[in-house]
Amino acid sequence: MAIHEHKKKFAVIGCGHIGKRHAEMITRNEEAELVALIDVKPRAELGIDQYDAPLFASLDDFLNSGTEVDVINIATPNGFHAEHAMKSLEARKHIVVEKPMALNKHDAEKIIFKALNVHRHVFAVMQNRYSPPSVWIKDLIESGILGQIYMVQLNCYWNRDARYYKPESWHGKKELDGGTLFTQFSHFIDIMYWLFGDVQNIQGKFNDFNHQDLTDFEDSGFLSFDFVNGGMGSLNYSTSIWNQNLESSMTIIAENGSVKIGGQYMDKVEICNVKDYQMPQLAPTNPGNDYGAYKGSAANHHFVIDNVVDVLNGRSAITTNALEGLKVVDIIERIYNLR
User: Fold this and answer.
1) Going along 244-303, which residue ranges are E strands?
2) 197: phi > 0 → left, psi -120 to 50 → alpha, else beta; which?
3) How many whole angstroms separate alpha carbon 149 and alpha carbon 140?
4) Pairing state of beta strands 149-157 and 247-254?
5) What residue ranges of the chain are covered by domains with CATH 3.30.360.10?
6) Strands 232-238 and 220-227, sheet pairing
7) Which terminal Cβ of the chain has fewer Cβ within 10 Å, N or C?
8) In the CATH hierarchy, which fold is given to the domain comprising 129-285?
9) CATH architecture classification, 3-124
């Protein structure tokens, strides 16, 4: 039987910036087929003319249409992720959920429980893990070369102003957005959890410096905590940076050395001073750079789609399991409970 008869069928709900990214990556994968797009806006407003897949106005319309589909990719506003995930799982479809999986731990747990009940996969999108510095630092920590971890400091300083928080946008609205940590910086909390495990004894300080008229929540915070596995950490974040992103960085102070990963998207190794260790040459981030305007983490989405296809074809394990998606939601919820 020819391979094209085995194509996995995908639908994308939410055709904004990230949803279009998913659609593009699906069409680029030879073993995947885009069978539908779902969005409340009319086709003319969405800028999706390059896709000939039909457009449905709601998830219900799509599910009732009888269109054959294997996987539903959820790229709607954060506040809808849980509802759309549950509906898709009830229809016995695999799901790919953009971060955050939900806006509270309770909803994330319901999604995982439902998926187990209907024997379907939940793929959490945590594409920053695929960048060469992330892969390298994960290996360095797991190999024990750094020894005991003493301190980890995350700095996430981005610009998000009126150009981003437009009045008609869901960004900035408490119920749909969830907050700065959910929408802007959950990828970095995911990387921290992936590398160092869970946190406890969280203390926090929050402020809203210049987003009073733009968002329903804080724009900046200082957080400190202890890692359950030992060592202490801090996360300093802000979206009140003037005009352009400043940095996302992670500094690790350990028994046998110090490492700093920086750049706008935590995509460059800036310092590696480690005892008896020579750092290897890393592959460039975003090889080939044929993704036009997609920078940083967005350029890694193709890894996510490739993994979905590989898992469904029995060739691979899930690289980002749903429990990790749940933990990121849990950590952010615990941080926000301090406000």
Assistant:
1) 247-254, 257-262, 268-274
2) left
3) 12
4) antiparallel
5) 129-285
6) antiparallel
7) N
8) Dihydrodipicolinate Reductase; domain 2 (3.30.360)
9) 3-Layer(aba) Sandwich (3.40)
